[in-house]
Amino acid sequence: xxxxxxxxxxxxxxxxxxxxxxxxxxxxxxxxxxxxxxxxxxxxxxxxxxxxxxxxxxxxxxxxxxxxxxxxxxxxxxxxxxxxxxxxxxxxxxxxxxxxxxxxxxxxxxxxxxxxxxxxxxxxxxxxxxxxxxxxxxxxxxxxxxxxxxxxxxxxxxxxxxxxxxxxxxxxxxxxxxxxxxxxxxxxxxxxxxxxxxxxxxxxxxxxxxxxxxxxxxxxxxxxxxxxxxxxxxxxxxxxxxxxxxxxxxxxxxxxxxxxxxxxxxxxxxxxxxxxxxxxxxxxxxxxxxxxxx
Length: 294
Description:
mainly alpha; 11 helices; single chain
């Protein structure tokens, strides 16, 4: 039987309220309970509390040092296959099941959101969704492909819109057929003695490794893909005719690149923004289905 996180396992104490319980019960952000529970269980872990404060400055120092090392390395040198093998094995052996589940969900959700925009665009746009089921699937360079897919989608969409002299606009009855719950279960991920590292700490650890084994172009593009949260959010809000939902985005303006030093932190924000947008689309899909039945 799955153990409840501490903030749900204990009674509410009015003299010592649990901040994680407050965040879980709050409904101001569109997250389903099972996702929010996993997110907050991971965020409230001992690893994040005691390990992250030491890992984060060390990881950012390594990013600076690796950037200096890259000056003396051939510009196109990369080892993407080795990188993805290291990432997948590290996730399997050291990272919490909640974090691994959220990572794997992200590939599915990101692909579904791009498909939603493509299906509701006035022009046809190809997408290349990634649907990993087990962590070993990541070894097929899925992190790199995820970043490439995002930029390629924005380019293809806007080339087609410009060529046909059209724009995205509100859709009266959007097509939500691609918006579904990913077919992966939290219980399927390893709960070993070493699977304790939380999502934020893992991302901070992996970011300099990502930088080391990719070209400068690939790493810079990956870091700055996070600012496309604003772009994708604008596309979805335009289709839904609901600009108020853009308040949920906070990865800054896409035309003002951020330092790669904060890439780990911003990657967490990117994951959360994706979860919230997908949850919103799920809610709207269910509302549309209920309206059709009525």
